[in-house]
Amino acid sequence: MTKSTPGFGRRAVCLIYEFLLLLAVLFVASFVFHLVFSDTHVSYFKPLFQFYLLVIMGYYFIWFWTRGGQTLAMQTWKMRVVSANGERLTKKQAITRYLFALLSIFFFGIGILWALFDRDHQFLYDRLAGTRIVSVDN
Hints:
two-stranded antiparallel sheet; 138 residues; mainly alpha; elongated; 6 helices
């Protein structure tokens, strides 16, 4: 069922597609947030809104990763995230992967560029979380 690590280019295109899907999710979530908190001028609005969006993104990724290992973009590009030993991700691994991915993206995408130099071509956050991305045959 699973095979080798997909190439960097394929994973990069999948990340772009993932970004577009995530924008749609965040758009809907933002709309809901603004309906509930309509006063955007209060001092706590911006940090609360940013935290809310991070939680929504986390919930999106963690839910998909722990239920089959594939987000919508990963299904399209025939990839799956699994633990280092090839098993389904635990909730702890998924949360760890999400937090490390956030950090690596905030630090100029270093966690993604890491895959260019990694011996197994894995992202840095996959290394740190004990996960990996594999190709999937249908």
